[in-house]
Each structure stands twice: as structure tokens, then as C-alpha cells.
Write a structure and sequence with these properties.
endopeptidase fold (from Nostoc punctiforme); 6-stranded antiparallel beta sheet; alpha+beta; globular
Length: 202
């Protein structure tokens, strides 16, 4: 019997990620000029304490934070809320939704540490993660899950990969700003219609 479930992705509502070994699968995402496999092009990483490395270092401290639709604080994050919050710690202010982030940032072919990787459902951007190196991303997956590091070698993510974006000057070295703890939770439920999908499950 079919069950119709309204999956409110909040730019993050993805199914379970199934780990897999390195794969040569081609991506079925939006951009056509991406490499055949992420693992082929994501080896380069920053070694200095650039804004990019600070983004990743701070983001990793949030691992285990619960997913929360519309969440933008350590009490709970959705995927774009997590990205926005982490980047804000190094003085970079990003749009609120994954779609807006994808549209506003600089397109790149080969993500490096600290860059953003985007995913699509039905040709609409609805998920974002922070590339952390070794073909992995930091992200807030979906309801009932927590901020985690996931492998981009997963067929699930490869199939939905839509491209990478970079904040200009992200990889320039800069002194780390003092990070002030945040306790307030923001529930910004403004979402574009492509971030809500009707999923039919058996």
C-alpha cells in the first residue's frame, strides 16, 4: 500500500546515506561539466589557517547537533542553517536557503576544504554541505538525525550532486576571530517551493 509522506526537506530532507567504496559513477546532477567522480578531483586541501580551514574546524565542533527544520543555532540546524551559522563565525554572511546559496556564490569545478557542495532533487537545489576533505562533507542530514560527516562516494549523493560553490577570498589566510557562543534558536521557515517535495513510498 502506498503511503504519501510530505517530506519537508528544509533544503535538507534526504533519505539515509548508504556508505560505499570509491566509485567511478557519473553524476546525474545539474551541471554537465563536472568530473566523472568526486574522488578524482577533491584531493587538494588547504594547510594554512585560512578562512576555509577555520570554517571546517568550527563546523566539526557542531557534530552531533540535532537536525531541526528552520534551525540556525547550536540547539538545532537544518543544512543551510548550519552552513550559514558556521560561515558567520569567520565574518562571512550567506543567504538563508541552499538554493539562494547556490545561486549567489562562485561556481567552481573542483571543491577544496571549506567550499560548499550542493545536491538536487528533481532538478531543484535542496541540500548543501561543507566539503571537509578526503571526499567527505559536513552536513545536517534530515529529521531525526544529527550533524555528521558523510562520504561523497555514496551513490546516493553522487546521483544528486549538482555542483560546488566558493565564497570569494575564502582560501586567503586570516586571523581567527573570537567565536562567541550562541544559544538562541531561530526558526526561519521561509522556504522556496522546490525545497518541499511530495515523496511516494511503498
Amino acid at each position: 500500500m502506498l503511503r504519501v509522506i510530505l517530506l519537508i526537506t528544509a533544503a535538507c530532507g534526504m533519505a539515509n546515506v548508504y556508505a560505499s567504496p570509491l566509485s567511478s559513477l557519473s553524476f546525474a546532477g545539474i551541471e554537465k561539466n563536472k568530473p566523472a567522480a568526486l574522488s578524482k578531483s577533491l584531493a587538494k586541501q588547504s594547510t594554512d589557517k585560512t578562512n576555509a580551514q577555520q570554517v571546517v574546524d568550527f563546523g566539526k565542533t557542531l557534530i552531533g547537533t540535532p537536525y531541526l527544520y528552520g534551525g540556525t543555532s547550536p540547539k538545532g540546524f537544518d543544512c543551510s542553517g548550519l552552513v550559514q551559522f558556521v560561515y558567520k563565525q569567520v565574518g562571512i554572511f550567506l543567504p538563508r536557503t541552499s538554493h539562494a546559496q547556490y545561486q549567489s556564490l562562485t561556481k567552481i569545478d573542483h571543491p577544496e576544504v571549506g567550499d560548499l557542495v550542493f545536491f538536487a532533487y528533481d532538478k531543484h537545489i535542496n541540500h548543501v554541505g561543507i566539503y571537509v576533505g578526503n571526499n567527505k562533507m559536513l552536513h545536517a542530514p534530515s529529521s531525526n538525525k544529527h550533524v555528521e560527516i558523510a562520504s561523497l562516494d555514496s551513490p546516493y549523493w553522487q546521483k544528486r550532486y549538482a555542483g560546488a560553490r566558493r565564497v570569494n577570498d575564502l582560501h586567503k589566510k586570516q586571523e581567527r576571530a573570537e567565536i562567541t557562543p550562541h544559544t538562541a534558536t531561530s526558526h526561519n521557515n521561509t522556504r522556496t517551493k522546490e525545497e518541499k517535495h511530495l515523496i511516494v513510498l511503498k
